[in-house]
Amino acid sequence: MRYERYLNTRRINSKMMQKSSLEFPPGPSSHIPGKIVRSFVKDPINTLSKIADEYGDLSHFKLGRLHVYLINNPDYIEKILIYDHSNFSKGPRLQSAKRLLGEGLVTSEGEFHKSQRKLIQPLFLPKKISSYGAIMTDRALRMIQEWKNGSVVNIHSELMKVTLSIICKSVMDYDMESKQARDFGNAFSITKKYASRLQHPLGQILDRVPILPKVAQAKGAGKTLNTIVYGLISERRKVIEKGTNDKSFSGADLLSKLIKVQADDGSIMTDKQLRDEIITILIAGHETTSNALTWTYYLLSQNPQIERRVFEEIDSVLGGNSEEYKQLSIADLPKLNYVEKVFREAMRLYPPVWTMGRFVQNDYTLGGYTIPKGSSLMFSQYVMHHNTKYYDNPESFDPDRWTEEFKMHLPRFSYFPFGGGIRGCVGEPFAWQEGILLIATISSYWSMRLAPNQSVKLQPGITLNPKNGIKMKLKSRQRSS
Ligand code: HEM
């Protein structure tokens, strides 16, 4: 079915090719230098949405000297990410992130990426990550036990903390709540901020001036992180080599599993490879999920009738009639159907990764146009997820739209919060499990309403953050019976 659609696209392409092979697709052109760049800096989502609305499936514009193609057709995106992926790289901006992430899954390319992916992906299969379910619910319970009825919390910061705690425990068996973890927490947060700064061209230039305080601070933070992560790798290797008589060692953490995996030629990962993959997964695996959950709670606070249905489902799964809820476990996941739809719909309206890009390696034919080598391709989850072609009333929060039939008829890349293909999100099963378990845990005890006097604004960086977070007033729940 998918392949037929791809062939269809090819047929359309070849017909259109005869018409116009070396022209640019339509798109905004500005005679005022820098006008589009300024518009992007000011409001990237609105700028992309307007271009897609006006020019359709494939448009072209220039950002400085760079030729950019905005792809707004799910079949084209499928062709790029699935069938022709080897003709694209992630591009030069990512090179700067290598300074911090090394050659982990997000930043590596080509054969090296492929072989690492082959080793790591099986460890993220739903069965393999089920043991992290208890960590997820336990950390969520610890967070909500600190909350007070009637108080106001910044839900974004709370969820950032809890998702970091979950990923550190699952990946390295590391307790972020312990005293020793304070250095790690500080170093991690400095490193993350600095990684975003490096995405900016000016940040990259300033990075070459080592005496600048921010540069020196980032270097120090990088050293601290390395010391801790290499220390954990060495400890874990020793325990594994000795054999595991140590009862406190379960070997369930991802690092222990990564230490043991073997490539086809029997080789194992070096300490440097392990370090790069671990830091990459920690960074890729917590801000995205916390943003998805923050927007979920924002939407629930605005839609009490949907929030009520979430409560009803949780109560029926956890035993709303008894005095105490039973302990939530991953065995309950298939029963949390409505919660799953809520999470899915929240990621449609507010996709944590709101845009993606690729660079063209060799001239490429798409939609009847030849896209020259070196051009940049953009596709935006945000723009696609709000497209009236695929979603009725796209601005409304409607979890009920996600029927099996609706999903079956939706083109694959009209909903792609996790990307797709060989570079799609390796942590997707982890994110679904974590998202649903956290919603079910939090909403079994708490209802939230937006605290007064704040306007919620989008801040589209690498992920889709709420500007200044979101403050919520907490209300202890009356359970439905
Ligand atoms: C709601 C949560 C998440 C969202 C929306 C999300 C989204 C994405 C997207 C769109 C990509 C592909 C980027 C591209 O192709 O350019 C990606 C890649 C990746 N994600 Fe996630 N992610 C989430 C959670 C996670 C988690 C929990 C982990 C790890 C535990 C993780 C680890 C990764 C890694 C390692 C990659 C790079 C994969 C590769 O290139 O082979 N992500 N993610």
Describe, in plain words, how this protein is organized in 3D.
With 481 residues, the protein is α+β, with helices and mostly antiparallel strands. It has a domain at 2-92 and 359-392: Uridine Diphospho-n-acetylenolpyruvylglucosamine Reductase, domain 2 (2-Layer Sandwich), CATH 3.30.43.20. It contains 20 helices and twelve strands. It has helices spanning 2-19, 35-42, 44-55, 74-83, 92-101, 110-120, 126-129, 133-145, 155-172, 181-198, 201-206, 213-242, 254-260, 271-284, 287-302, 304-318, 337-349, 381-385, 404-409, 428-445; strands at 58-63, 66-71, 88-89, 152-154, 356-360, 364-366, 369-371, 376-379, 446-450, 458-460, 464-466, 471-476. It has a five-stranded mixed β-sheet. The chain has a three-stranded antiparallel β-sheet with strand order 4-12-9. A hairpin with a 2-residue loop joins strand 6 and strand 7 (369-371). The structure holds protoporphyrin IX containing FE. Protoporphyrin IX containing FE binds at residues 105-106, 117, 280-281, 284-285, 288-289, 292, 352-353, 356, 417-419, 423-427, 430-431.
